[in-house]
Write a structure and sequence with these properties.
With 373 residues, the protein is an alpha/beta fold. Helix content is 44%, strand content 16%. The chain has an 8-stranded mixed β-sheet with strand order 3-4-6-5-7-8-9-10, sandwiched between helices. The longest helix is centred in the middle third of the chain and has 18 residues.
């Protein structure tokens, strides 16, 4: 029998109801919520209810993107394809810790897992055209070490709603992060971010001193810029991702591109599919706007000052084979600012969280431990 889960109040009548009727009954925004495992078509009195996490703040209903994705996984889980069913079962198990909250008028998804009473909490910020699932290996590793992880989807990415006003600039992402931290009542937490994510982390950090204990940045550094780069890169990147990769219906061409340009290590098939899914979940306007912003002189010129203004220690991790954000440019940023420590990972491209997740996890743990001494 197919198992589904939903978030909502336990206020369903003691009668036989379908999965869809249960969803309609239980999805009430603005209520304290918890997660239930439900055997479809059984009576409520026969159901085993597993309390996963109770939230003491108003919650939102799951987004349409989440609901569609979950339905796809449930169908795969019930299919005769053993490999697909195994992958779906794993992803559905991760969804137990999925939560939804309104930030600045937009419903965001975040994944909150690990010990609730953990000594250390870390917020994980995904990169450009990515989503929270790029962290799933790191999440498992850190949770097993006793660290609470909060991995969220930025507006227009993953399972978070798109912005109807199409505001996808760094400052909007940073404002969302500030509200997430405030609503979750986080203090003295850590941040790990990769690729585009550090832009958001740094913008947040300079306006919110005293809250972050440490930051770990992967595949981030001083972006070279000139009139040619600014003009050409924006158009090329937007065209490749919005007009080519996003229109693919088969994962293999996208993987070939990633393997040739982004990664220096083979990636498991499941991780390829997860990465491919992010293309369909990300708003095209988010790609166009963020690409334009990170290639603007105002942004590239401000990076050193943003790093200098951060009041938390930063670990910069560079992939030796990263062709997008070269280790040379990462080291240059550390030397220019005189701030932070630098680690170079051999045989690693731009996608360390899926290429070498155990190494990424250990580096995060080392950075966390370094400020606890």
């Amino acid at each position: 029998m197919r198992k589904d889960f939903y978030s909502g109040e336990c206020s369903c009548p003691d009668k036989v109801i379908s999965r869809y009727a249960l969803a309609a009954t239980c999805f009430f925004p603005g209520k304290v919520i918890f997660f239930l495992y439900l055997d479809t078509y059984e009576t409520i009195s026969q159901l085993t209810i597993q309390l996963i996490r109770v939230m003491a703040y108003p919650a939102s209903s799951p987004t349409p993107k989440f609901v569609r994705y979950r339905e796809q996984q449930l169908d795969l889980q019930a299919s005769g394809d053993v490999a697909a069913a195994t992958r779906a079962t794993y992803e559905l198990s991760l969804m137990k810790d999925s939560c939804f909250i309104e930030l600045n008028g937009i419903v965001h998804h975040y994944h909150d897992s690990g010990p609730r009473d953990a000594k250390e909490t870390i917020v994980l910020i995904h990169g450009w055209d990515c989503w929270w699932m790029w962290w799933h290996h790191v999440i498992k590793y850190l949770n097993e070490k006793g660290v609470r992880t909060i991995a969220y989807d930025m507006r227009g990415h993953g399972w978070s709603d798109n912005d109807p006003n199409n505001h996808y600039h760094i400052d909007f992402f940073a404002h969302d992060l500030r509200e997430l931290v405030s609503k979750l009542e986080l203090s003295q937490f850590h941040i790990a971010a990769f690729s585009f994510g550090p832009f958001v982390a740094l913008d947040y950090a300079r306006s919110n001193p005293g809250l972050i204990r440490s930051m770990t940045f992967f595949n981030f550094g001083l972006l070279p810029n000139n009139a040619f780069i600014k003009a050409v890169s924006t158009n090329i990147i937007t065209f490749v991702f919005n007009n080519l990769l996003r229109k693919l219906t088969w994962w293999f061409p996208a993987y070939v591109y990633a393997r040739l340009v982004l990664a220096k290590n083979p990636v498991p098939h499941h991780d390829i599919l997860i990465a491919f899914s992010s293309l369909g979940l990300c708003a095209p306007d988010a790609i166009a706007q963020t690409t334009s912003q990170i290639t603007a002189y105002e942004t590239t010129d401000s990076v050193p000052d943003m790093v200098k203004s951060a009041d938390a220690p930063i670990l910069f991790v560079a992939g030796q084979g990263d062709a997008i954000m070269t280790c040379k440019n990462t080291k240059k940023l550390v030397e220019l600012t005189g701030k932070g420590s630098y680690v170079e990972v051999p045989k690693c491209g731009h996608l360390i969280t899926v290429e070498l997740p155990d190494i990424a996890s250990e580096l995060i743990l080392q950075q966390i431990a370094s400020v606890g001494r």
